[in-house]
Design goal:
Elements: E1 11-12, E2 18-22, E3 26-30, E4 36-38, E5 47-51, E6 58-62, E7 69-72, E8 75-81, E9 84-88, E10 95-97, E11 106-109, E12 115-119, E13 125-129, E14 143-146
Antiparallel strand pairs: 1-2, 2-3, 3-4, 5-6, 6-9, 7-8, 9-10, 11-12, 12-13, 13-14
């Protein structure tokens, strides 16, 4: 049983047994039964979920920390909190902040689920190596920027 949500905010788990969407926060839905539950009850700004290919993490954007600001719409005198990239496990018991930026961001995963790529408004590409199961408590994931003159495969996690 599927419900109607904006396509950009809908992300299926790799096993297709559940999906996530954002509507006043992140929700996880059992695709067979339609049963849904809020993943992050304390974060109603979480949006744009994206499952890792291995199904172990969900990346998303949030303004919950309220750091930084971006122009709000066409009125450049108004600002809204900047989105930051976070990851959480599917049970939402381990959430980590990945970025500290004042930009709008777009996300994608590497196919091996070890690297989360994020792109701010300046069109550079940033990559973050995520903690592995052997190092689950890494507080500062290794990150680097990729610019148009840098081949993307020069750095591996």
């Amino acid at each position: 049983m599927l419900v109607n949500h904006e396509e950009s905010d809908l992300s299926f788990a790799p096993d297709s047994k559940s999906y996530t969407f954002s509507e006043g926060g992140l929700w996880r839905v059992n695709a067979a039964t339609g049963h849904r539950r809020r993943l992050l009850p304390d974060d109603r700004t979480a949006a744009h979920p994206l499952w890792s290919p291995d199904g172990k993490l969900i990346a998303y954007l949030s303004t919950k920390d309220g750091k930084g600001s971006i122009p709000a719409g066409e009125d450049t005198n108004k600002t809204s909190p900047a989105n930051e990239v976070y990851t959480t496990n599917p049970a939402a018991t381990a959430t980590h902040r990945i970025t500290n930026t004042d930009d709008e961001l777009r996300l994608t995963w590497s196919t091996d689920s070890q690297t989360l790529l994020w792109q701010p408004d300046d069109l550079s590409i940033h990559a973050t190596c995520l903690p592995t199961p052997a190092q689950p408590t890494a507080q500062d994931p290794q990150s680097w920027a990729i610019h148009a003159t840098t081949p993307i495969l020069t750095h591996r996690c």
